Amino acid sequence: FAREGMTTVVHGRDTFAVEAIDYVASFRPPPGLLATLPNLKAMLSLGAGIDGFLADPALPKHLPLVRFVDRTLSEEMAQYVVMHVLIHHRMQRMFDAAQAKGEWRQILLPRRTAQTRIGILGIGEIGTVVARHLQPFGFPVSGWSRTPKAVDGVRGYSGAAERDAFLAASDVLVCLLPLTDETRGILNADLFAKLPRSAFLINVARGGHLVDDDLIAAIDSGHLSGATLDVFHTEPLPAASPLWRHPKITVTPHVAAISDPDAGARTMLDAIRRCEAGEPPLNVVDLARGY
């Protein structure tokens, strides 16, 4: 940024005049801060999610909010999802447990690949990349979105009227939804009941999508076979959380995809250059939809 003739300050570390700030880059800005900056031109998210901004009741909604879009981030997310789909599909956790006991267990997979249906809840930009990575393995892939989307090789569902049919066709459900008022708590008992028996959940979106107790109850009842969770309501996940110790839940510390600093800097510079040239920046959030 210095090479571009810009001065960068860090909130909480540096002193600065509020009227001197033209752009803010953040992931979870302190509530109320943005409204105190009278000359702010745009808000830049340092991550793919923008719920940290939307949580601010004083968010200056007349300004553009630019979300971070990076192909590398999408590819890493796809790698994570494919890995955990395969771990579940090939029953690797069972074999890990057998190895710990010194047991030789040869069994047939309960479901063939062509019969294991992967449902992507939120088939946006990242969901499309995830679907593309899953297809070469032979999994049938479907995707749900709020509005219709056509993705090659993916059976599309959209809107509230088609969501139940999508869930019924998802043996593995991958949540990639944005976190909005509409989607908060969507991974709950009602949704789980609409999945096929023994379905598996992978949540790489936001912890706010999941009702933790409902997930544990669905697994303990036998309706769900397990889950992989990378995101949580509170991060780091508190030591007292039962998610840590549940034998059918895999916990990872929000590492499915980590924003690359160089890519983030390039994205921010591009947005700033466009604003300064009087052009609209790319990837501006539709605040009415929340993504």
Describe this structure in words.
29% of the residues lie in helices and 14% in strands. Helix 2 crosses helix 4. Strand 8, helix 7 and strand 9 form a beta-alpha-beta unit. With 291 residues, it is an alpha/beta fold. It is built from 8 helices and 10 strands.
Shape: elongated
Contiguous runs where pLDDT drops below 50 for at least 5 residues: none
SSE topology string: EEHEHHEHEEHEHEHEEH
Return Rg in Å. Answer: 21 Å
**Distance N to C terminus:** 27 Å
Question: Biggest sheet, in brief?
Answer: 7 strands, parallel
Strand element count = 10
Mean pLDDT, nearest integer? Answer: 95
Task: Provide a brief overview of the structure.
The protein contains eight helices and ten strands. By secondary structure, it is an alpha/beta fold. The strands form two sheets. Strands 6-5-4-7-8-9-10 form a seven-stranded parallel β-sheet. The chain has a three-stranded parallel β-sheet with strand order 1-2-3, with helices on one face.
List keywords for this structure.
291 residues, alpha/beta, 3-stranded parallel beta sheet, 8 helices
SSE blueprint:
Blueprint: E1 23-26, E2 42-45, H1 51-54, E3 65-66, H2 71-89, H3 92-101, E4 118-121, H4 125-134, E5 141-145, E6 154-158, H5 159-168, E7 172-175, H6 189-193, E8 199-203, H7 212-220, E9 224-229, E10 249-251, H8 261-276
Parallel strand pairs: 1-2, 2-3, 4-5, 4-7, 5-6, 7-8, 8-9, 9-10
Helix pairs in contact: 2-4
